Amino acid sequence: MSKPRKQIHLAAHFPGVNNTTVWSDPRSGSHIEFGSFVRLAQTAERAKFDFFFLAEGLRLREQAGRIYDLDVVGRPDTFTVLAALAAVTDRLGLAGTINSTFNEPYEVARQFASLDHLSGGRAAWNVVTSWDAFTGENFRRGGFLAEQDRYSRATQFLQAATELFDSWPESRIPADPDRGLFVEDPRIGSFSHRDAHFDIAGRFTVPRGPQGRPVILQAGDSDGGREFAARTADAIFSRHGTLEAGQAFYSDVKRRLPAYGRTPEQLLVLPAATFALGDTDADAQEKAAVIRRQQISGQTALRLLEQLWNRDLSGYDPDGPLPEVDPDLGDAHIARGRASVRMHRDPLATAREWRERATAGNLSIRDLIIEVSGRQTFIGTAATVADRIDDLVQRDAADGFILVPHVTPDGLDEFADTVVPLLQERGVFRTEYTGETLREHLGLSVPAVSGAAR
């Protein structure tokens, strides 16, 4: 018997400040006005996407002491935006990035539980950590945590939040339903959680939501991040969009699940993906090349190179060769609020590789940065892109994709109008929503009440 074809999951990413958006494009709108959020979310819902995904940052990034070029508009509060979107959408899931390093479990659990009720069961939480003291300066508890401590805190943060979500068991016993009277279990809302990071006890104010708990997303790629996702997440947001890298990541995170009593179906792998569509594959390739040069201006190329070199390179010509001087291996002081410098485990080796690549291809600084800083994941006609997405999902390189348009808020329209119908014709993507909640969209069951909350 042939293996049944997997259903593809799709989400729409509202990136906010980033180096993906082509700000020079006339279609590029505000990233803070509510109308932009509404436009992208309603397009995603029209195309029957699983959810809308909102990124968040807790501080504007800086480079060489100045606000980074692409951070000029900032980011509004996640919960405010998602709660407002709940009123102008009906079925679309609403996912937000909320930090576990500089927030508190009670407050975050109360906000997500409220959002889940207000949206009719469509809330999702992308649990992230922060590594830098720069972001911590915005909070009373400044400083930063080492990687193992960040994930330890995140694990306990999520455990505490889970106990809060589950602190309202199904224990309202009707005494006289006609008069609206109930016998209340005195345990309702009661919680007590103590560990190395938190010492909290009291009574939670929000009943268990339609989904039991919000869907949990996680975006870490380190070993600690993958283990955290295997233990706690419903979906993991990855950066591996090619077949080989995607299959390796997919296999790695799925193999970790049995250690936590979980099955492969309980964790979805959803890489981020960009796209460039054209009337022909050649046309799409040309469009993709134009988009990349729009995304990486000469000044942006220098800023991105500085994040590896950890030096002020403003005096260099972006259309000239790479610096002969080696990267500064001292503390990161050029880019603040970005993890890019620390993602290069061996800056000297990376610089050597980039020099060899630039020499072989006769590449300028800008040309090299365009080549190494990523490309559109899917390039081609609508049919080519639909084929590629379906192939990657069916071959277990992903369970679906979180799409990041290069123009917001209208950049998803072409994909929704051309690629989605082809996936629907193949029978691998829904033509209508069949469930009410995000868990139903994703094929996830409502979790049982945790043992600690019983």
From TrEMBL:
Keywords: Flavoprotein, FMN, Monooxygenase, Oxidoreductase
Pfam families: Bac_luciferase
Keyword Flavoprotein part of the UniProt annotation: yes
Keyword Translocase: no
Xref: CDD domains: Nitrilotriacetate_monoxgenase
Record-listed FMN binding positions: T97, Y151, S222
Gene3D superfamilies in the cross-refs: Luciferase-like domain
Domain of life: Bacteria
Domain (Luciferase-like) ranges: 25-394
A GO term for molecular function: monooxygenase activity
NCBIfam families membership: FMN_nitrolo (TIGR03860)
Family that this chain belongs to: Belongs to the NtaA/SnaA/DszA monooxygenase family.
Protein name per its UniProtKB record: FMN-dependent oxidoreductase (Nitrilotriacetate monooxygenase family)
Originating species: Actinoplanes digitatis
The organism's taxonomic lineage, starting at the top: Bacteria, Bacillati, Actinomycetota, Actinomycetes, Micromonosporales
